[in-house]
């Protein structure tokens, strides 16, 4: 089953987007984020992790490729930045595929194009667009 939604928001309304995404976490274990540089992918993921109870530093995994976060309820969150991963084979060889679809966990993946074949169900694809300096648009495509 697929489902599609669109939301236009100002940067001061990022909580609206976070609430929408958090509401989908019961049905989706994986959230992919695509869009041009500066569209707000990392900003939305950071706000989403905070709303899920993650404390401490939440840095972008630009150089580490994956960061693991946990909240005080024992829920795990894997934040991937796959900008430097060039193929599905490279992702699998690094063992990152083992983190997908783990019980009591969610994966937030920036630049997911190279691993699309692994994302078979329970996925929310978040396409982010830069409208102007204060406005963004996201399109949510769910694959349940």
Please explain how this structure is put together:
The structure is a single chain. This protein is α/β, with parallel strands linked by helices. It has one domain: Rossmann fold, CATH 3.40.50.300. It is built from three helices and seven strands, in the order E-H-E-H-E-E-H-E-E-E. It has a seven-stranded mixed beta sheet with strand order 1-7-6-2-5-4-3, with helices on one face. The longest helix is centred in the first third of the chain and has 11 residues. The model has no long low-confidence stretch (mean pLDDT 94).
In short:
With 144 residues, the protein is an alpha/beta fold. Helix content is 19%, strand content 35%. It has one domain: P-loop containing nucleotide triphosphate hydrolases (Rossmann fold, 3-Layer(aba) Sandwich), CATH 3.40.50.300.
For the record, give the distance between the C-alpha atoms at the N and C termini, rounded to a whole number. 5 Å
In CATH, the topology is named Rossmann fold
Average pLDDT value? 94
What helical percentage do the residues reach?
Answer: 10-25%
Could you say which structural class the secondary elements and strand pairing correspond to? alpha/beta
Name of the CATH first level: Alpha Beta
Please trace the helix and strand order, writing H or E for each element.
Answer: EHEHEEHEEE
Number of strands: 7
In DSSP terms (H or I, runs of 4 or more residues), the helix count works out at: 3
Number of domains: 1
What attributes characterize this protein structure?
single chain; alpha/beta; Rossmann fold; 35% strand
């Amino acid at each position: 089953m697929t489902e599609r939604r669109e939301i236009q928001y100002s940067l001061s309304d990022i909580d609206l987007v976070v609430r929408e995404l958090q509401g989908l976490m019961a049905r989706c274990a994986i959230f992919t984020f695509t869009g041009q540089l500066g569209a707000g992918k990392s900003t939305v993921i950071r706000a989403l992790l905070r709303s899920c109870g993650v404390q401490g530093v939440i840095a972008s995994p630009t150089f580490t490729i994956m960061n693991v976060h946990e909240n005080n309820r024992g829920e795990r969150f894997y934040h991937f930045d796959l900008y430097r991963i060039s193929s599905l084979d490279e992702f699998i060889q690094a063992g990152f595929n083992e983190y997908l679809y783990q019980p009591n966990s969610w994966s937030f993946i920036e630049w997911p194009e190279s691993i699309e074949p692994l994302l078979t169900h329970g996925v929310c694809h978040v396409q982010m667009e830069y409208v102007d300096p204060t406005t963004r648009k996201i399109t949510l495509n769910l694959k349940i």
